[in-house]
Amino acid sequence: MPAATGEIVLGIDTSCDDTSCGIVKGGKKVLSSVVSSQDSIHAPFGGIVPEVASRAHVERIAWVVEEATERAGVSFEQVKAIGATQGPGLPGSLLVGWEFAKALSFAIGIPFIGVNHIEAHLFSPFLDREEEIDFPVLGLVISGGHTLLAYAKEPFRFSLLGQTRDDACGEALDKVARILGLPYPGGPHLEKAAEKGSPRRIKFPTAILPGTYDFSFSGIKTHAWRVFQENKYSREDIAASFQEAVINILASKLLYAINSLPVKSIVVGGGVVANRKLRNVLSHIQTESNIPVYLPSPSYTVDNGAMIAGLAYYLMKEGKASQKEEDIKPALSL
Questions:
Q1: 203 part of a folded domain
Q2: In-domain check, residue 327
Q3: In this structure, is residue 175 part of a structural domain?
Q4: 251 alpha carbon, distance to own chain's centre
Q5: Most buried in the list 69, 93, 100, 113, measured by CB within 10 Å?
Q6: Domain with 265 in it: what CATH number?
Q7: Would you give the distance in Å from CA 252 to the centre of its chain?
Q8: For residue 317, which of 28, 20, 16 has the smallest C-alpha distance?
Q9: Number of domains the chain is built from
Q10: Tens-digit pLDDT profile for residues 141-175
Q11: Across 278-325, where does the E strand assignment appear?
């Protein structure tokens, strides 16, 4: 890839349980991306404890930012703007990154930009990519906290089409993994168990919600619990059949949107994108629809500061620096 041009932007994300900082040049070329995971801290609890997450962010934020600048080989004097996640997310976690970024931008004397975490996930497939992604773009976000479809007729102006009415996709995968006695975080372990099971052994009733772009995962999660209680199927078969049902829901909604809207490209972001079975299904959709599907590199599927920095660059170009009195927005949506 040729040397990137444009200003250098630093991005910070502390929306949930990972402390991260990324440095991006020209909006797309990632110079460094550092993510400090808290998985080992929350594993004994089987899920994220907000207060514990906040304290861990406080302990790690300065190191993560310093490490990102060292890996990128840049000084703070070279950074032209700082972006931070404004929301959505856990209030205590958001506040750590938001205030740190705001203070750092004030000390350096450069613009500070609040970034929507969901929009950043939709931006993540653009990182480290040479070719242009044509608009209109259909976007799908599938993570532990969010499952939604979005649409943009022009660059980075996404509007919400539909979202989950109950559990997020990643949340449902984690909960069923816990039911099956799998370690935390559950999603990757459920995927491994599913590789040894039959995806068609158990029939899961799925709420397709016809005529809408919305999702629902609560019903199949409850069904997984009932099947587990019956003690008739192996853990691997339950994992495989549940994963198959979840992916079928995602694929059906994506195809519905493709058939009802003018779409030139599809972008998919969020932690669940790392699932290999899902990536295979998305590849098949690309072939059948003849519409390119762009996925982020595996390291950009998780929450990361690089996607915040990349989107902040374009917001900076539009003159959308945040005001000093602005605060976090834990319930921020598209």
A1: yes
A2: no
A3: yes
A4: 18
A5: 93
A6: 3.30.420.40
A7: 20
A8: 28
A9: 2
A10: 999 889 999 999 999 999 999 999 999 999 999 99
A11: 293-294
